């Protein structure tokens, strides 16, 4: 499937990766990772960026001035990190009766955005490893701190850390608008990608509602895999957490009641049942992963409510430091996955 794109211990203090000399690949499952040093994640930078972003861009509802301001901020930050930054515009989907403000001469620029960063691959630029988050907010929220300011912060910190990585495939952080009105921008993006068929997405990682999780919170970090490639993805994820990150993990089925899942820092699930932008990539038969702090969105008490604020996230997470630890683990797991799928042969045939 070809697609185009613009396209029993828990490690504390952010789950520190062992030195490069101790990182060994699992034969026939992981690529050779022995040349890599631990990723230089700055979780404090990520947390402080998150605070500033959500406080400076309240009411990021699709079509509002602060929604556009948020997109411009992401463009600037991607460019500052060294990525080629582009904004793709999509017309509002009239079939969904979405009413957006129209201003200026171009109806397209009054529409729905995808902010895309591009770091071309050096040897296989036609292959893409992407990660996604949505920056828009639900109509019932003001700051949308956890949903999905948190995932936006993780995706941007991941882009910053990967800016110095010597990638073979093209790396592509994507920030989607209009997730909260039906995954609209990601649907349009994937549809256009499928029509043009100039590149192959080898992996897409989704970040939505992340950071309230181990090691700073009692919730595990849930690591989901797309069902269409579960047979290949599950052994890779197990080897990552067991042999590389050395984090306490367990494996479970989507159908397993939460109270029956053994306690662990990371829970690897055999499928994907969340409704966010990575879903459209999965439906296009592209391998996906999804990280989440919280098994279901409604587990977070402020989900789609006005009190989804910085203050409430800190209260629920048990403090800023604990939230920072959860962000660190999410970025670190994502970093290793990007590197792994940059080095592995494509799963897509």
Explain the layout of strands and helices.
Layout: H1 43-56, H2 65-80, E1 84-90, E2 112-118, E3 124-134, H3 145-162, E4 169-176, H4 184-196, E5 200-207, E6 221-225, H5 230-244, E7 249-252, E8 266-269, H6 278-283, E9 288-293, H7 310-317, H8 320-343
Parallel strand pairs: 3-4, 3-5, 5-9, 6-8, 7-8
Antiparallel strand pairs: 1-2, 2-4, 6-9
Helix pairs in contact: 1-3, 1-8, 3-8
Written description of the protein model:
The chain is built from 8 helices and 9 strands. By secondary structure, it is of the alpha/beta class. The chain has one domain: Zn peptidases (Aminopeptidase), CATH 3.40.630. It has a 9-stranded mixed sheet, sandwiched between helices. 52% of the residues are buried.
Which features characterize this protein?
alpha/beta; 9-stranded mixed sheet; 33% helix; disordered N terminus
| CATH C-level name | Alpha Beta
Averaging pLDDT over every residue, what do you get? 88
* End-to-end distance: 6 Å
Secondary structural class = alpha/beta
Number of domains: 1
**Can you tell me the CATH superfamily?**
Zn peptidases
| Beta-strand proportion | 15-25%
Shape: globular
Give the % helix: 25-40%
Number of strands: 9
Radius of gyration: 19 Å
SSE succession: HHEEEHEHEEHEEHEHH
CATH fold-level name: Aminopeptidase
Number of helices: 8
Summarize the structure.
The protein is α/β, with parallel strands linked by helices.
